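Collaborator request, handled under Task 6.
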Amino acid sequence: MSTDAKAPTAAPVRGRRIPEPSPVIRRSKKSKAPLFLILPTIVVLVAALGYPVGWQLVTSFKKFGLKQQFGVPAEFVGFENYITLLTSSELWIVVGRSLLFCLVAASLTVAIGGLLALLMQRVGTAGRLILQVSMLLAWAMPVVAAMTVWVWLIDWRRGVLNWILVRFGVDAEGHNWLADPISFFMIAIIIVVWMSVPFVALSIYAGLTQISGEVLEAAAMDGATGWQRTRHIIIPLITPVLSIVLLLQLIWDLRVFTQIKLLQDAGGFANETNLLGTYIYQLGVGSGDYGMASAVSVFMLILTIAISWYYVRSLMKEEN
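Structure tokens returned to the collaborator:
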């Protein structure tokens, strides 16, 4: 007969309480390496962007005229340029036109880009490659080269568009599509959207590839239609991607210049088709009033910050 041997235990000391072991508190020290790595980039950005913005701000408080073209220093006039601009009906017409243009162009770009992204997800590998290569070629084409082709297509003397319409019995021979502001901006929106869709479509497609197929299969097994899966599952999951591409498109389309300027040179009337970019160019390079042009540039910068502030604020809330 054997008995189990037990290890001797220490008898508790009467009148004394054995303290429980306290958890070890480890204070994590944040590494400063990321700060040192990003510091050179911040310095370069401040040097590259800070000086032009500062120069624009200082110039906006000065008055430029004919004397300044012969070397006479510009006169400091304070907020006179801003008061003149804010009380000018022409500026607010250009601002309203620019905001409407960027809203329509950005909305169409995101809508068409989203549809193309869904199409790339549904087609086979060969069709997807053809779409991606075609969009990359359109996106990589230089703006001036692309505008040369577009101007040739809509030229009122030898344009392909008028030639095709005449062949279909439409009396469009010698019609200048750029003379009317409505048709001018329709063509401008088509060109801007055509140039911007590849970036949006590829960005949204990258977001679609991150959605788990099991979630969509489960929804299909529960009886959800394709539209219901797109509306209630796909769109909510890629909302961050849609938000950032829409914000970028609003900013880019608000600052559009090259397409509008080349279309104006091809037959449009500048005073009736000016957006903020071409309006600043007309004031500065065209009229030599760099003080007023700088004031409009500062106003445009404030407008851009106001448009993007909501998204930046939501990003900061999510980060916190």
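The cover message to the collaborator said: "The longest helix spans residues 89-122. The chain has 14 helices and two strands. Please let us know whether this matches your experimental observations."
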